[in-house]
Amino acid sequence: MIIIVSGLPRSGTAMMMNMLKAGGIKILEDKTRKPDENNPKGYFEYEPAKKLPEGNISWLDEAEEKAVKVISFFLQHLPDKFEYKIIFMERNFDEILKSQKQTVMEKGQKTHPKEDKMMLEYYKSHVKQTKEWISLQSNFSVLYLSYNEMVKHPEQHLDSICEFLGNELNKDKMNKVIDEKLYRQRSKKK
Questions:
Q1: Which fold has domain 2-92+139-176?
Q2: Whole-angstrom Cα distance, residue 162 to residue 165?
Q3: Which residues, including other chains, have CB under 8 Å from residue 133's CB and lie 6 or more apart?
Q4: Considering only Cβ atoms within 10 Å of each terminal Cβ, which end of the chain, N or C, has fewer?
């Protein structure tokens, strides 16, 4: 069994990886991508996972009984030979887009409002299709968690994470990972 933390980029996947690590789950990361102002606590990425679309799956053997971050676009490339417990992070789509734009602008690149609207529709469609696909996979079990709700009321979600994973995790340490000051790209919608 492999624990996969997934979702769109900037949806709270790094926070969840950090929470699992604090709770006592072994994680697969290589620290190639260094913390920065957008993720000061780290990205918790594993470079080989980014090569799933190229068919690079040899690293999955070392992921057994651990957690690894795999963005939602790559889930369909996971081989059938493993059982997966997916923690799928969801976040307000406008906030994801704002957060991604902030990262792009910090690199000196520009975005266009027309592209933003197209990306928003693309993300919504992708998440809908991914959820439908996951529901058809017999070797996948999934827990959908809202980043927005997790930051506001973490205690309410910690039990569901422990129950889903079948582990008694250190919920106090997991709760301390959540830093509301890092929730910067908030939607104005209630």
A1: Rossmann fold (3.40.50)
A2: 5
A3: 75, 76
A4: C
Residues 6+ apart with CB under 8 A from 23: 161, 162, 167, 169, 170, 171, 173, 174
Q: Each residue of 126-176: pLDDT tens digit?
A: 999 999 999 999 999 999 999 999 998 888 899 999 999 997 899 999 999
Q: How far apart are CA 94 and CA 48, in angstroms?
A: 29
Residue 88, pLDDT above cutoff 50? yes
Helices 113-135 and 93-106, interaxial angle, to 10°? 130
What is the spatial distance between Cα 146 and Cα 187, in angstroms, rounded to a whole number?
14
CA 103 vs. chain centroid, Å, equals 17
Question: Would you kindly state where each structural domain of the chain is located, as residue ranges?
Answer: 2-92+139-176
Average pLDDT value over all residues in the chain: 88
**Mapping DSSP to helix (H, G, I), strand (E, B) and coil, where does residue 153 land?**
coil
pLDDT in tens, 50-63: 999 999 999 999 99
